[in-house]
Amino acid sequence: xxxxxxxxxTEPRCPPGSPRRPSTASGPGEGERGGGERGGGxxxxxxxxxxxxxxxxxxxxxxxRGHLQELPYExxxxxxxxxxxxxxxxxxxxxxxxxxxxxxxxxxxxxLNEQSMQIGxxxxxxxxxxxxxxxxxxxxxxxxxxNVYAVYFx
Length: 154
Description:
By secondary structure, this protein is α+β, with helices and mostly antiparallel strands. A three-stranded antiparallel beta sheet has the order 1-3-2, covered by helices on one side. The chain has two helices and three strands, in the order ααβββ. It has two domains: 1-42, no CATH class; 53-152, Tctex-1 (Ribosomal protein S3 C-terminal domain).
C-alpha cells in the first residue's frame, strides 16, 4: 500500500503502468506530491454507458438525406454543404448527451460519375471504449460520406 498524506497506508494501489485519477484533496499539504503525480484512487474502468452507435447512424442517415436528396453536384455549393452537414451532425450527436466522449465529424461530398474512390482513415484509440459510425449517401449526381468518431476521454 502507498502511504497517504496522513501516513495511514490505506490508499489503494493501482496496477503498474496505469494512470492515476486526480484527487479532490484541498487541505494544506495535500497538493501535488513528488514527480508531478497527484494522489487519488485508480482510474475509472471505462464509460458508464456505451456510445449509441445505432442512434448516431440514424442521425447520419437523416441529416445526409435531408440536406442532399435533391441537391445536384456543384463544387462550391457542395464544399459549403460539407461544412454545414458536419456542424449539424456534431450538434445532434452532442444533443444525445453521452458523457466523456470527444466527437469528431468528417464529411466528404463528391461528384458521382463512372469513377471509383476509396476513402480511408486512421486513428489511435482504445477499441474497448472508442468507436465510430459511418453512412454513405448517393443521389443521381453526387455521393456523400459522413463519419463520426467517438473517443472516450477519461
